[in-house]
Design a protein that fits this description.
Blueprint: H1 2-8, E1 16-21, E2 31-36, H2 38-56, H3 60-87, H4 102-109, E3 115-116, E4 128-129, H5 132-139, H6 148-151, H7 159-188, H8 191-196, H9 200-204, H10 209-240, H11 259-275, H12 278-305, H13 320-337, H14 339-359, H15 368-383, E5 405-408, H16 425-431, E6 440-447, H17 450-470, E7 475-482, H18 485-495, E8 505-509, H19 522-535, E9 539-544, E10 559-564, H20 571-580, E11 589-596, H21 599-615, E12 621-626, H22 627-635, H23 642-668, E13 673-674, E14 677-678, H24 683-704, E15 709-713, H25 723-734, E16 740-744
Parallel strand pairs: 5-6, 5-8, 6-7, 8-9, 10-11, 10-15, 11-12, 15-16
Antiparallel strand pairs: 1-2, 3-4, 9-16, 13-14
Helix pairs in contact: 2-10, 2-11, 3-10, 4-7, 5-12, 5-13, 10-11, 12-13, 12-14, 12-15, 13-14, 18-19, 19-25, 22-24, 23-24, 23-25, 24-25
Domain SLC12A transporter C-terminal: 423-543, 555-754
Transmembrane segments: 43-63, 70-91, 128-148, 168-189, 204-225, 260-278, 284-306, 327-356
Subcellular location: Membrane
Length: 755
């Protein structure tokens, strides 16, 4: 169009650039072609673009009114071209126009790619070489109008009917016109004429070239107005959907004109015009269009293949294979045009998708990949045996075992209302997973009636989810409303999770505050939780000293000591190794303490455990404590340390508690009861249990007083003993140990020699 305008207004042009094209190689003589200067193209192009922008600012209604004024002359000029082609050659036709001839068509059938100068004029010495791939990128923008209806869907009366019908008709019509034009002009003029006459359509048109000149100008102006109208509205639609938060400045109210977006689009258009050569820009535009079409095809492919219930296209002649072929063709064409730019474009698109996933707000447009993720998750669950009842499928091999901790958020005491979980529990959950990967389930129980507390539960769930995200922990939040904590936990331990994806470790804080705050209900609740875990075959990890647990930036130096007393499937060993994978504990060393009956067995036991750890590729120092030295810790000098005082106090408190329980039972004429359950008191067993805890605590204080963290086997609550007694046992075990993990495994191995 600018060439025509500059030809009309030659007196306003600064200069004309004359390019000599040597066509002797084709058997002809040298031909001189004049072309406007780059400077003139830039100036007049910017002026025309600014004038079009002022028209667009008038609103879409004005554009719709003047659209027929642009369309009718264009259709008439196309008709004149076909009439001229059929009637050629005319009296004044150049020598290169032979008229429709099969000989000419055969001569032009083979490829003969040319070089051009920066202005696009054929030049054997030009710097730009055009091959098939480059011409494909140049031509492709001519067929990119198929999304025009979708881009202006808000202006259509019936989008569901108009868009598919209009798109298909437009695609079929333009395809036939392009193919027909290729054959007609290939049979109309010689190759030299096709290369040198840049307005061959005007030369052959009936009745005069001026008709085509007017048609080209109006067609170009009309297409420019449509683009300047549709692009800002598409930008505003993306901004209003909050898909890309960086585009919030382009938001516009419904029914208002997108002035800011129009200014931004105008700036981009003027920048492209300043380049002065659209042949260099069109391959870039082609890449963006191909990415768009590939994305649309990929979305349709995923939705149709995955049988999404919301996928109900009105166009029934559709199959997922067509969408897949379309998406692959787009990618192939991109690589044909420029593999380097394709890689950059795909990387940029991936970054935008990641940014949208990270920062974009949820909307009602959906995401085809979400359906793929859902189906992939279902397939993975089937492969894990989650969706089957097969006993073999439910057995997880130790080398495939992952900790899935159930984090008990608020079991003891009170936290501030705006704090949904102990601040260190998420840190500890991350320490239990290698590189923080793996699922955690954070559970909190609200006492009360579900119908009355449902809204409170939703609010707490939102707070807990925000806490998990803030701690960068891979986990989900679950809130249970139950009459009591015991009832709530019993429901959780039975129903939470799916198959092999059910939580396998219950993590909770040790109730250190139960005596100081006189929380008399804690012992029965704590014992009930442990017994429920044993019944449900869940491992238990109770953390003592959670307030002092280090975060990821606090480095620890020392030892991680394991007191391996009962068989736990290797859970303590695995947890210690997971701790070493964290920056906080990577400078620590592991010590494994084991109990031998006799001194003669100590060396043999030590050698066996060293061999076992070596086969497991676990580095640890093995220390064997014999029963004689174990008992000496409670009978010798250890009697004078603080543990002895705690032991005596525990004995006295248990005696007082049991005597009060007996008095109450005698007064009410019933058997000994605690928490609604009958209990049996055997004072000898109570003293034996207390004495064992005393010995173990003394051993820990002797060998591990400076340890970073101590892991010890968690004893099961004695059958039919009062829960109060068990809490006294545990208090004596953790006495003066600042940081301890009490671990109870379950009836499965979590480490193996074959991992």
């Amino acid at each position: 169009m600018l060439f025509l305008l500059l030809d009309f207004f030659k007196q306003f042009s600064n200069a004309e650039k004359v390019t000599v094209v040597d066509s002797t190689a084709n058997g002809g003589s040298g031909i001189t072609i004049s072309t406007p200067s780059l400077h003139d193209l830039q100036i007049y192009g910017v002026i025309v673009t600014i004038l079009l922008c002022f028209i667009v600012f008038g609103g879409v209604k004005i554009i719709n009114k003047v659209a027929p004024a642009f369309l009718m002359p264009v259709l008439f000029s196309i008709l004149c071209i076909y009439i001229g082609v059929l009637s050629a050659p005319g009296l004044n036709s150049p020598k290169g126009i032979t008229g429709l001839s099969t000989t000419t068509l055969v001569d032009n059938w083979s490829a003969d790619y040319q070089r051009t100068n920066d202005a696009g004029v054929p030049d054997p010495n030009g710097p730009i070489y055009w091959d098939f791939n480059a011409l494909l990128g140049l031509f492709f923008p001519a067929v990119t109008g198929i999304m025009a209806g979708s881009n202006r869907s808000a202006s259509l009366k019936d989008t569901q009917s108009s868009i598919p019908i209009g798109t298909l008709y437009a695609t079929l019509l333009t395809t036939m016109m392009y193919l027909l034009s290729v054959f007609l002009f290939g049979a109309l003029a010689t190759r030299q004429e096709l290369l040198t006459d840049r307005l061959l359509t005007a030369t052959v048109a009936w009745p005069a070239p001026a008709v085509i000149h007017i048609g080209i100008i109006l067609s170009t102006l009309g297409a420019a107005l449509q683009s300047l109208t549709g692009a800002p509205r598409l930008l505003v639609a993306i901004a209003n959907d909050d898909i890309l938060p960086v585009l919030n400045c382009f938001k516009a109210y419904e029914g208002s004109e997108p002035h800011v977006a129009t200014l931004f689009t105008s700036f981009i258009c003027i920048s492209c015009v300043v380049i002065g050569n659209l042949d260099l820009i069109t391959p870039t535009i082609t890449m963006f269009f191909l990415l768009c079409y590939a994305g649309v095809n990929l979305s349709c492919f995923l939705l149709d293949l995955l049988d999404a219930p919301s996928w109900r296209p009105r166009w029934k002649l559709h199959h997922w294979s067509l969408s897949l072929i379309g998406a692959l063709l787009c990618i192939v064409i991109m690589f044909m045009i420029s593999w380097a730019f394709t890689v950059v474009s795909l990387a940029l698109a991936s970054l935008i998708y990641y940014y949208v996933s990270l920062k974009g707000k949820a909307g009602d447009w959906g995401d085809g990949f979400k359906s793929a993720y859902f189906q992939l998750a279902l397939r993975s669950l089937r492969s894990l045996g989650v969706l089957t009842m097969s006993a073999a499928a439910n057995q997880v091999h130790p080398k495939n075992w992952y900790p899935i901790p159930l984090i008990f958020c608020r079991p003891w005491g009170r936290l501030p209302e705006d704090v949904p979980c102990h601040p260190k529990l998420a840190d500890f959950a991350n320490f239990m997973k290698k590189k923080g990967r793996g699922m955690s389930i954070f559970v909190s129980i609200i006492d009360g009636d579900y119908h009355e507390s449902a809204e409170d539960a939703k609010a707490v769930c939102r707070q807990l989810s925000a806490y998990i995200d803030d701690k960068r922990c891979e986990g989900v939040a679950e809130i249970i409303v139950a009459p009591s904590m015991s009832d709530g936990f019993r429901s959780i331990v039975q129903t939470m999770g799916l198959g092999n994806l059910k939580p396998n470790i219950v993590v909770m804080r040790y109730p250190e505050i139960w005596r100081s705050e006189n929380l008399t209900q804690i012992p029965s609740t704590f014992v009930g939780i442990i017994n429920d875990c044993i019944t449900a075959n869940k491992a238990v990890v109770t953390v003592k000293g959670l307030d002092e647990w280090p975060n990821e930036y606090q480095r620890q130096y020392g030892t991680i000591d394991l007191y391996w007393i009962v068989r736990d499937g290797g859970l303590m060993l695995l947890l210690s190794q997971l701790l070493l994978t964290k920056d906080s504990f990577e400078d620590c060393k592991i010590q494994v303490f084991c109990i031998a009956e006799e001194d003669t067995e100590a060396e043999e036991l030590k050698a066996d455990i060293k061999k076992f750890l070596y086969d497991l590729r676990m580095r640890a120092e093995v220390i064997v404590v014999t029963m004689k030295s174990f008992e000496a810790h409670a009978d010798g000098s250890s009697r004078i340390d603080d543990t002895q005082e705690a032991y005596t106090s525990a004995q006295n408190r248990i005696k007082v508690y049991l005597s009060e329980m007996k008095e109450t039972a005698e007064r009410e004429g019933r058997p000994l009861m605690e928490g609604g359950k009958q209990v049996v008191v055997n004072e000898q067993k109570v003293d034996k249990f207390l004495n064992t805890m005393l010995k173990l605590n003394a051993t820990i204080l002797r060998h591990s007083r400076m340890a970073v963290v101590v892991l010890v086997s968690l004893p099961a609550p004695p059958l039919n003993q009062p829960a109060y007694c068990y809490m006294e046992y545990m208090d004596l075990l953790v006495e003066n140990v600042p940081r301890m993990l009490m671990v109870r495994g379950y009836r499965r191995d979590v480490v193996t020699l074959f991992t």
